[in-house]
Amino acid sequence: VFHTACQDGKNVPEGDIVVSLDKASVLENIKEVYRFTLDENCSSFPGMIHKMHCLNDTIYLLDIQKAPGLYVYDKEGKQLYAYDCMGEGPKEFKGLIDFQVNESSVFLFDNVGRKILELDKAGKFLSSESVPEQAYSFAYEPNGRYYLDLGNSTSFNKSKLISGKNGNFDYLLTVPDAIENITISPTNTLVYNCGSIFYLPALEDKIHVCQDGKIVNTINLDFGRHWPDESFWYENKGQHPLMLFMSMEKSSYIRELNFLIDGDVIYLHFMQGDSFFMFFYHLRSGKQHLYVDKDKSFYGPCTLSGDKLYVMKEDDIVSVYQLDLETMHLTSVL
C-alpha cells in the first residue's frame, strides 16, 4: 500500500514499493511520439551526455567529460545557450558533476571547485556558494538549503549526506557497515520534486525523503531475491568496482539502479543479467508497470517530464515517448 501524506503543506510519500521482476512485460512496438536532433551549428557542442533534464519544453544536457558544460536546447533542438566557462574565476567551474533546474534558476555543482553556481534561465551568471566537501551529486531547496551526496566513504564522519545553509551544515545518515568505502554512484542520487528532496543512496534499495535538513520518510524498494544481501557485500569488500559489478552480474543481482521522479511518477531503471528494466510507479494511485528492454534501446541518459519520457539516442537525437498516467504504460499515442 502506498499513499502520500502532507507535512507542513508538502506531500510526503509513505509506504514501500514492490518490484517483481517476474511480472515484467517485454518492451516492443513502442514508437516515439516525436524526436528532434540537436543543432550542431553552434560554437559549443556537448561531446558525451551524462545527465539531462526537461522543464517547460526546454532541454538541459550536462557533459562532464568531453566538453564540460551545460547545454540548453528548445524542443526543436535549437541551442539556446551553453555554459562552458571552465577556469579559476568566480563565474567559472573546475569540474562540473551535477545540475538542477527550477522555475527561475539553474544551479551547477562544481565538484572540484567545491561550489554551487547559480544562473538565470538565460544562462547568465548570478552568484556562487562554497560547499564544505566534494560530492557525487547535489540538490537545492528553494529556501537555499543544499544537500551533498558523499557516497559510502567513512572519511566524512561516516555519513552519507550533508545538508547545509548559510554557512552551516550537518551530517545525515550513517553509512551501513556492509558497504563502507564501496561507492558506485547512480546518475541521479538527489532529485528535487514537489517541495522535497528525494535521495537514492549508492548500493541501497531505498529512497529517503528530505525536507529542511531532515529525513522525513524512507521508501523501501523491495526487489526480493534480486537485491544483494549483507553477506554479499561483506564477501566482496575491497573489490575493485569493475570486479564488484561482475560479481553482481554473475549472481543475477540488480546493478546500475537509477531513478527519476516528477510529480507523482517514480521511474526506476536498472540492469539485471543482460537485460535492462524500466519500472514506472504512480505514487497516488499505486499503478505500476515493469518493462524489460532486452535490446537496451532505452538505456542511456533520460529524463521524465509530466507524461513524457525523453531519451538521448545516438547521432544526437532526442526521442520522446508518451506515458499513460492511468496505466503506467508507454504508448505511441499523444
Features:
five-stranded mixed β-sheet, 2 helices, mainly beta, 334 residues
Q: What is the fold's blueprint, element by element?
A:
Blueprint: E1 2-7, E2 10-15, E3 17-18, E4 25-26, E5 34-37, E6 51-55, E7 58-63, E8 69-73, E9 79-83, E10 96-101, E11 105-110, E12 115-120, E13 125-130, E14 137-140, E15 146-149, E16 159-165, E17 168-174, E18 190-193, E19 196-199, E20 206-211, E21 214-222, H1 230-235, H2 241-250, E22 255-262, E23 265-272, E24 275-282, E25 288-293, E26 302-305, E27 308-312, E28 317-324, E29 329-331
Quaternary organisation: single chain
Indicate the mean pLDDT: 93
Strand content: over 45%
Radius of gyration, in Å, reads 19 Å
Q: What is the 3D shape? A: globular
**Number of strand elements:** 29
Q: Give me the secondary-structure category.
A: mainly beta
Spans with pLDDT under 50 lasting ≥5 residues? 5-9
Helical run tally:
2
Order of the strands making up the biggest sheet: 3-21-20-19-18
Helix share, percent: under 10%
Q: Termini, distance in Å?
A: 30 Å
* Main beta-sheet strand count, sense and barrel state: 5 strands, mixed
